[in-house]
Structure formats: C-alpha cells, structure tokens
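To: structure desk
From: M.T.
Subject: fold request, one chain
Message: Could you run this one when you get a chance? Sequence is below, nothing fancy, just the single chain.
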Amino acid sequence: MPNRESFTDFAIQNIRRIGGEKLVLEIVRIFIRQAGQKWDELNRALDARDFSGVERAAHSLKSSAANVGALALSAICARVEEAANQSDQSTIIAKKAQLQKETDKAIEHFTEYLKGKTP
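Reply: Done. Structure tokens follow.
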C-alpha cells in the first residue's frame, strides 16, 4: 500500500465540495487513464532527446497529480520538468525510476480508492 505522506485528501475533498462524489470519481478515473499515457509520452520524448516533449509530459502529469493530491508524484514531475527545461538529460534519467515508482503508486492508490467507492 502506498505511503500516506505521498497523498493528501485535501484535493479530493475540494473536488467533492465543488461537484460531489460523481465528479470525484470521474476525475480519478481520468487521472488513472492519463497518468500511464503521460508516462509513455515522457519516455518516448526522452528516447528522442525531445526535451520540450519531456517538459510538456512532466508538466501535464505534475498538474494532474496535484489536482488529485498525489504530492510525491507532483514533486518528482516538477524536478523532471525543470531538468527538461534545462535540457539536463542526466538528471531526467536519474529521476526516471523514482518517477515510474511514484506514477505506479498513484495509479495503485487511486485504483484502490475507486474499488472502495464503486459497487
């Protein structure tokens, strides 16, 4: 089970307050689907040495993670985004395993969340 310090319930509570549980479930489902897609985009861009592509994918994943309260994932994405902005391939590669781990943890966390909320 993911470490609780990696996540905050505050973001989900705000979404619930704005649009109810239906909106929370919709946003969580979108996050789960898009997190893997953004990870794949980031890897393809890195393989192509397309630092602007890495930056865009990291930025998108950072924002999505922050929107659902995946703090650790958002933080590592910010570091990768900054490294991509500086064309710092070695830092991106050094953070790649941690980024994959945090992406997997977030997907697992929110998949479990959905299991508890849907019949």
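Reply (cont.): The chain has one domain: 4-112. Let me know if you need anything else for the meeting.
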